[in-house]
Write a structure and sequence with these properties.
single chain; 7 strands; about 400 residues; five-stranded parallel sheet; Helicase, Ruva Protein, domain 3; alpha/beta; 3 domains; two-stranded antiparallel ribbon; DNA-binding; Arc Repressor Mutant, subunit A
Length: about 400
DNA sequence: GTCAATTCACATGAAAGAGACCACGGTCTAGTG
DNA sequence: CTAGACCGTGGTCTCTTTCATGTGAATTGACGA
């Protein structure tokens, strides 16, 4: 009975006309052949990096722009072409793309250099070696041949925030010690004021050239969506207005094209799952809610126990009363929760940092305010939408063993 | 009424410790011929 | 004689604690109008 039902479902699924032609086009890691509205930037990058093809060291380049403005895409696009040409003409150019945000890959000095050395085929243990040892391995590997190395550091602000700017100093200085090879750094950052806090020496050598990616406006996002949707969906699947609405959503969020594409993809999936023949505007609303919910659930359930305990305290307080919550209040409740769950309570100092991190994750809002005579504290409130709060609460309860 | 000093309740920074993970080199042990 | 097991040392990395210092405005209290 059940078996037949499921088989039937699968058969239905097969016979049904799919909404999607090629869903991959809407995925985040998809690299399209042409990138609309970024021609200027791409030619600029190309001009700056072109000397690599003559085995001269290109200027270091620094690219800023908010998320989803096509920075990474444009840089990769350009470097791919450089690689293509260099391969055809047998020019020893190497391009390394490293995302500094990836945990446990390249978020510290040691790991970044180790990762680079690994790209050169050297085995480097994940830990245990002195950092300068790894530098040496890397030097030797890179200086072995005459070549130009383009090092693309994506989300470089994250790296500097965690590990300091010494790495960048070392990297930009490396050239004077290399005999054969030359290395150029392309830094990509979401943070527009990131270089302000940099050591001036690093700043001047890293940003020999700078490029700013402005956010897309709604029309441009529409263009991008249209172009991709043409490939992704079958004809006539999207109701009119869907693209426009989608673009409007994204334009509101500082022109994030990535988000717009994700929204469109999820909306399509939702429509498909509920056996609809078209993607309606309502699906966009559902999709947005789903994205938000999935993101929250994912973040909350992957947090360490202590973070969950803190978050649970905040939920517990907000359940009993309305309004903003102070740090001290959270700490009291948190301690009692630690008691109940046999968790070792942390100090208030640590709790303060945890609150700041939860704020960064967007689960809570924490704003430092001064209440004059009555001290200074964080004003904390939940940032989650009420509709998903019960879900999060139950996740926390489960994970903390408070059922 | 005005103005500087005070005071609260934390925020924020810096440094250092604990404990996990790991490589490397030396020493010991057991197995092999 | 040699391969493998087993230490001790020294390194990184993350999470915490400890200690120290900073901070913004309501409140206080002195002062003069």
């Amino acid at each position: 009975m059940v078996k037949k039902g499921i088989t039937g479902l699968f058969e239905d699924y097969l016979t049904k006309e799919p909404l999607f032609l090629d869903k991959e086009v809407l995925q985040a890691n998809y690299t399209p052949d042409n990138i609309p509205h970024r021609d200027d930037q791409i030619t600029q990058i190309a001009k700056i990096l072109a000397p690599a093809l003559r085995l001269n060291k290109p200027s270091n380049l620094f690219v800023y722009g908010k998320t989803g403005t096509g920075k990474t895409l444009s840089v990769r696009h350009t470097t791919n072409h450089i690689l293509e040409v260099s391969k055809k003409n047998k020019i020893p150019v190497k391009v390394f793309y490293i995302n500094c945000k990836l945990k446990r890959v390249a978020d510290t000095e040691y790991r970044l250099i180790a990762q680079l050395a690994r790209e050169f085929g050297k085995a480097v243990p994940p830990t245990g070696l002195p950092t300068d040892e790894v530098y040496k391995i890397f030097y030797n590997a890179i200086d072995h041949n005459k070549q130009v190395v383009l090092l693309i550091l994506d989300e470089i602000d994250q790296l500097v925030k965690k590990a300091g700017d010494e790495i960048l100093y070392n990297l930009t200085r490396i050239n004077s010690e290399l005999k054969n090879a030359q290395i150029s750094v392309v830094g990509i950052s979401n943070d527009l004021v990131f270089t302000d806090n940099l050591d001036p020496r690093v700043k001047s050598s890293l940003s020999e050239e700078e490029l700013v990616f402005p956010p897309y406006n709604a029309l441009q996002i529409q263009d991008i969506l249209n172009q991709r949707a043409k490939v992704a969906f079958r004809d006539g699947i999207l109701r009119s207005g869907v693209i426009e609405k989608c673009a409007a959503y994204a334009a509101k969020e500082h022109g994030d094209a990535r988000r717009a594409l994700e929204l469109l993809r999820i909306a399509g999936e939702l429509a498909e799952r509920s056996n609809e023949l078209h993607v309606e505007i309502e699906h966009l609303d559902l999709a947005e809610e789903k994205i938000e919910r999935d993101r929250m659930v994912d973040i909350v359930s992957t947090q360490p126990k202590q973070f969950q305990a803190v978050l649970y305290s905040i939920y517990a307080i907000s359940e009993t009363r309305k309004g903003n919550i102070s740090t001290g209040e959270v700490y009291d409740v948190y301690k009692s929760i630690c008691n109940r769950t046999a968790l070792r309570p942390l100090t208030q100092r640590r709790l303060s940092d945890i609150l700041a991190e939860l704020d960064m994750l967007g689960i809570i809002n924490a704003k430092v305010i001064s209440k004059g005579r009555y001290g200074r504290t964080k004003e904390i409130s939940l940032a989650t939408q009420p509709s998903i709060e019960p879900k999060i609460r139950s996740i926390l309860k489960n994970d903390l063993g408070l059922a």
